[in-house]
Fold each of these.
Amino acid sequence: MSDYKAFRVELKDKIAHVVINRPEKLNAMNADFWTEIIDIFRWADETDEVRVVVLSGAGAHFSSGIDVAMLAQTATKFGADAARNADLMRRQILKLQASFTAVDECRKPVLAAIQGYCLGGGIDLITACDMRYATVDAKLSIREVDMGLAADVGTLQRLPRIIGDGLARELAYTGCDISGEEARSMGLVNRTYADYDALIAGVFEIARVIASKSPVAVRGSKRMLSYMRDHSIADGLDYVATWNAAMLQSADLRVAMTAFMSKQKPEFAD
Amino acid sequence: MSDYKAFRVELKDKIAHVVINRPEKLNAMNADFWTEIIDIFRWADETDEVRVVVLSGAGAHFSSGIDVAMLAQTATKFGADAARNADLMRRQILKLQASFTAVDECRKPVLAAIQGYCLGGGIDLITACDMRYATVDAKLSIREVDMGLAADVGTLQRLPRIIGDGLARELAYTGCDISGEEARSMGLVNRTYADYDALIAGVFEIARVIASKSPVAVRGSKRMLSYMRDHSIADGLDYVATWNAAMLQSADLRVAMTAFMSKQKPEFAD
Amino acid sequence: MSDYKAFRVELKDKIAHVVINRPEKLNAMNADFWTEIIDIFRWADETDEVRVVVLSGAGAHFSSGIDVAMLAQTATKFGADAARNADLMRRQILKLQASFTAVDECRKPVLAAIQGYCLGGGIDLITACDMRYATVDAKLSIREVDMGLAADVGTLQRLPRIIGDGLARELAYTGCDISGEEARSMGLVNRTYADYDALIAGVFEIARVIASKSPVAVRGSKRMLSYMRDHSIADGLDYVATWNAAMLQSADLRVAMTAFMSKQKPEFAD
Amino acid sequence: MSDYKAFRVELKDKIAHVVINRPEKLNAMNADFWTEIIDIFRWADETDEVRVVVLSGAGAHFSSGIDVAMLAQTATKFGADAARNADLMRRQILKLQASFTAVDECRKPVLAAIQGYCLGGGIDLITACDMRYATVDAKLSIREVDMGLAADVGTLQRLPRIIGDGLARELAYTGCDISGEEARSMGLVNRTYADYDALIAGVFEIARVIASKSPVAVRGSKRMLSYMRDHSIADGLDYVATWNAAMLQSADLRVAMTAFMSKQKPEFAD
Amino acid sequence: MSDYKAFRVELKDKIAHVVINRPEKLNAMNADFWTEIIDIFRWADETDEVRVVVLSGAGAHFSSGIDVAMLAQTATKFGADAARNADLMRRQILKLQASFTAVDECRKPVLAAIQGYCLGGGIDLITACDMRYATVDAKLSIREVDMGLAADVGTLQRLPRIIGDGLARELAYTGCDISGEEARSMGLVNRTYADYDALIAGVFEIARVIASKSPVAVRGSKRMLSYMRDHSIADGLDYVATWNAAMLQSADLRVAMTAFMSKQKPEFAD
Amino acid sequence: MSDYKAFRVELKDKIAHVVINRPEKLNAMNADFWTEIIDIFRWADETDEVRVVVLSGAGAHFSSGIDVAMLAQTATKFGADAARNADLMRRQILKLQASFTAVDECRKPVLAAIQGYCLGGGIDLITACDMRYATVDAKLSIREVDMGLAADVGTLQRLPRIIGDGLARELAYTGCDISGEEARSMGLVNRTYADYDALIAGVFEIARVIASKSPVAVRGSKRMLSYMRDHSIADGLDYVATWNAAMLQSADLRVAMTAFMSKQKPEFAD
């Protein structure tokens, strides 16, 4: 893999492991983080061998969120005209959002493995993933409200579709901490694990299952589920019919059928 | 009722009981199934006496999903031109979708009672119903991923609105089995029952309650809830005001008022 | 506060406490209720000192819903022409909806504290609030179906986004009672409390936390979350970037930053 | 062709000519009309040999709109309950709409050739076609306003997308007549012709051009343009990419390329 | 009529004539204008006798747009915090928009008669009307660009639906003047007249035609056309079916039928 | 400017002139074209000095559309599996679309000056521009239908919003040529000019007018008009209020006011 400053990336057995790698800074999201994450997920998207991605944090925590120094720096670019400052700020926010949109739009499933702190930007990041798993004692919090701002890189957009409108509001307005176990009972994370080792073992087990499936089927399913966050059921049915019109001429369908008939495990091409 | 090959249909006490009736084939969905289901739900929709529908499977299972022979047959119709094949396939998928849209658009509530296997197309079918009930040990699974394709007759469209985005993705990508009890904890089924007899008894009890209500009120509520899956809150408020503009001149309102004042049980016309 | 007939309103420590105040009528929603609630929430919206609103019911119950006398009265205005009656009815419903839209659109978070009965219009009202809290033995029910009509002042529109599609349908079609505790397990209320005193104490504690946060951040978060009920993720990201373009030039951001650096509690202007 | 009462249908040189054939009744739309039109356009949709459809009226007029006897008959089915009448009426309107939706959704382009009167339902019908052509002295009018009702089978839905919002409103509120020439200057018809013979000759000339093109390309274009009436540009770009993913493996592309290179006229399979 | 400062209002023969009445100020839109217009159009909406509204300007001009003094005054309310200023400004703009939304949402058609200048806010106003008519030498211009701001009370929202995307952009970016005649060729105004007297005579003639039609039919048509600016064709068809479910039980339908049969002019109740 | 192979780019007097520069190939769009256009419009977007862009073609023609060699090359990448080919093709189309989306999303207005041929991809390109101007004898044609495919880089998405649904369909299905003058009468181009020199002079004159306006106002107007192609009027009004909340604190507003009061020409900062 290429040499990253804020990440460590491994590819083994068709699973890409993307690790936020600034443990001494609680994996705070600095300038390197925001640019490298785009390259990494573009690579994961385009590399046929990558079937699924696991995203975790090095050290004791997943991430403490955006590096405060970055926020402070933006203010230094402000000039005298409020409108031109606003334009500058708007484009800056859109740029940060693009980093997590790269995660969201990666055609392969992304599984977040969360231990320790997952704060502020950390929540924005995990809501851009497909699924979330945590240690029982992880600490999650929409911390932006404490910085005097409304979260603007994805949490407020994606969270209500995962946990419903009522709980999302309490988390956003109060900035309160919840444990991994509370997150599970809300549906924010799918499962919890006793500790970090169990978490990583469990998430890789799920990743291995996904990696063994037809990549055509998995990517098609991801595209549909992402599409359905924003479209009507009628639109979704039409879209999947159009999509599968091409995809059902796939070799994977024949491989699956043959395996099913012969009661053997299918092997799909990348 | 008319003579169906893949179903058995009964109407008693204003409740239509629609039973998938190919127990020797685990209620797999064959060609008869896909055409008859449209006729049955059109009949349920148009027959005033039907106030509510219960949908279940004969024998030990709800349904093992689409008959694999049907899938295999489609491929035999393919010609030499990939574009014309795609067009053929697209229309074929749209046609299958129409079978479950008939369930979704039936103006009467449809309650699914699920025991044993509910796999692949079975999940597509139950997500097109209003509510779902299961035995604790039912086995549910989005099996399409194992056939090398993205589910295309409704699961990926309707499921996230029922159980949220995070859990839906895990089920779709892994094709893992969940029990009735797990399905309940996710919100996929509303209640579980110890065994099949308790399930049927429980579901019919709920059906009887619904059948005793004003049909004008129940159908209006169904229309609104279906509408809200795809429309904004402002659109929904406008639509319900327009709908009720006519419906509030209903005799049922007077019947209900009178019953309420006299503390008696109201009797509504079909 | 101004003199209301159906409400009692207090403002203390930046928290407005709005109490439905017709305990002898189980806080049924009469004509005064529907007009005064608009004035009260407009006041709460425009008064900078109000940071958060708690909504509760005086006496043993939250509310038994719309005053039946009001419904009966509408019918007396009907003339001979069904179309003109429908037009009259449609405008009447739109007017009632506007009363709860005033709650929904109040820029400050609204917390409902629910004890005893919360029936019919009571459910319409609490779904227009940001968050809901209840005593374990509260009794909640979508009662409209028993009056022969589809709920038309907000329940059917807002409820599915809070508890999902499957459970919402059962509540709407059956009109069955659920307890506070059942409501919590569905996600309809966020937390339950043993009794009324604990409920009020608990809800005010949450309100105090919210009142201590940056009002710019809290209002921005509310706007975003309300916006996301109806818009795509891409639209939401663009909107929050545009919103924050101005809002990030806020003094609150500097206050929060300074407090964060000095590890002190920030004090935000109204 | 099958034997129709309200139509005459011919297929020649890959062009289906569908003629409303009740000239003695000014081609008023009776019960036969509304059911047969569905069969005819389903046939046109499914018959590969049909590449394009021309729709015209026998005799001196295109159509005087819905048969007034049909409207009158509906009222005779009304019972005592306004709500149940409304439900009946709503379903009746949806059924009429489905007849013109069959025209709209036919995968082959439909060209309307308009002479003489085109009134009321006639306008609903031609706005469901792809393109419209008329004699200079044709008389077009949204006549529904004169029957005391808002047009409900498509005119108000489709017209503004063709001629813009301002002119559509004048036509709808006043029910005034416009000539073919005025219709052309508004963009309602694409071209005008001096008389009926010139009209038919001109429209068939355009139909022949379309029939000579790749059917894969023409149908794809129609699907896209219909889709764009209701979707965002971003959605449209995604949809066309998904559609063409399959369709660009078409033999037609190779046929066209070869013809282009050799400067010959391509011949496409149906 | 009540006593207005910025307007003169007359009601005669079921036509309300609303005249902007500050000719000495070129009918610039001052504070009185923005509040009175809401009252006037609410009155027009609720008064059954009003069947149609004509909107014109007293003196030589329609309107020179927003009173510059008003804009200047807003700036004086600004405080030190850019975020709180932005919040103030946003609410101020929403309030101005509400004034023209009252015109847009009036259930009766509104016809604008335009002579002389129609600049800036004048364009925002006329695009909120149903139809526009002008003298050949009227001068229309989107003047906001010259004040250093994007038009924010409706022009940029409503204009493209009237004249298409390409011409709207040229007018908005350049702020150039166009004559009434040029406006007509773009579809911005429906017809032009030689001078003011001909304009008023012509517009009242059209208004009289509309006033003679069934008010149930005209209002229904307006609701549908407004609805279609923002909804899909499928949504529009469903909505009109639901609307007409009630409205087709109208006395107007019988009146129209009877008149049609007896070839007499129908007389509709308000 | 940087060194481009397929373009020539000049910046003078705040106007960027982007010239497609392969006159010997009729400005056919080759691989260089598709990548360089992204860089150029990103540069135009980010360079404050660029206020407006003029896009034209070197030599006798605007552009003959996509280079056929490029299309042919794609086919060579196809493998044995139709599904994987479809995936490859879909991503390829999305990539081409991104090139013209860069034009569409450039924050500065883009004016297309069209002479000679503007075919196929040329139409896709000019519909992504803000405004279009042409010589009277230019030749425009949606040529994709002749290549056996539905246009997939923007024409079918953007054209109907410019010229309406009826004319767009005729152009798309027939692939017929229209002259500049016919394009003007349809609203596809805003104005025509006698010859190339007059065209360039005329377009630059319009560009100069736009360049003299407040850039804050022009960019805001462009954002709003682009937004309105896809959003409801209510959404648009909310968005512009949020946008202007920040932008009305602009220095440009003061500059414009002062100039207006002193009747002088304003000078705005970039």
Note: Chain D touches chain E through 46 residues (CB under 8 Å).
Amino acid sequence: MKKIITISRQFGSGGRTIGKEVAEKLGIPCYDQELIQKISEETGLDGDYIKENGEYTVYRGWFANAFLARDERGLSTQDYIWLAQLQIIQQLADKESCVIVGRCADYILRDRPNVLKTFIHADTAWRADRIVRVYGETDETPEKRLKDKDERRKAYYQRYTDMEMGDAVNYHISLDSGVIGLEKCVDIICDLYNNMEDE
Amino acid sequence: MKKIITISRQFGSGGRTIGKEVAEKLGIPCYDQELIQKISEETGLDGDYIKENGEYTVYRGWFANAFLARDERGLSTQDYIWLAQLQIIQQLADKESCVIVGRCADYILRDRPNVLKTFIHADTAWRADRIVRVYGETDETPEKRLKDKDERRKAYYQRYTDMEMGDAVNYHISLDSGVIGLEKCVDIICDLYNNMEDE
């Protein structure tokens, strides 16, 4: 049976880095950017467009939203990306043990056994400091960037799933990477993954 | 510096058992029933009454609530218990390294360094099975008992703190004891506690 680790994360919490390091340690693939590439191939849409529309709600206001292009099934482009990523994530989980970062994989794979669902978070001050170091400065303050990303990810999650992002009961383990440290988070998740094998 | 582990938990999740085993392994005291005893001594109120009123809101309806006995400061008996447990938990944390189960200790000690805040949860089916085994049958179905306890604990938490119980960001680590297993939860928490010492 394939074993999957899903990593849901707050922006700037280091969840992506943790996912990569976990995958490397375990010798399994990590799907993050690679997932965007696959969705891009599947949908024919641009990678940057998918990055923005596959995890975040887009603020357009109700008027613009009402006039969003919809196909003959009544689906918006964002719905279309959702369906593509749903299918791709299920295919990946069928194919091989792996780490999947973000994109509601925890929800998409919720009924499957041998899925370790993780959530990585950290307080705003720690994340603000980290995003400036990792992603560089922008016109917006880091706090504003975090607030915007957090809200839009949460809204996206709520729109396409019936779960509340960040609600502890939705995950097998939730970790504060700022307090616990990225390396320790990696160790704990690898250990739990190895433990799954014994069942 | 004293090191404290707070264990917030869903009813039936095994959080109390985890707390006791963590304390035993680390050779530090675990405050659970002992806390009720202390609050009882401090307030002169009966232990069973404190158990019921120190962590759960009591459904009385607005009419009965409006006529609750209040002292000269306008405090109800529940407020009085809250103030006593707040003071006792702070004194305990000053005095010695320990494990504190429930009673909003995570909130009460939120600004103190060297506090490892944990949350233990599990899905309803697992907890329902466990409470029948551990606490025996009652007239109510286990599912109804869980729902009632969950809701009242959550409401109590919301009333006396400004935090949402079970919101992952409020804890350093949240664990699904049903999936991860009590023993593994104990190991992870002990490991994180020992790691705190190195800081």
Note: Chain B has ten helices and five strands.
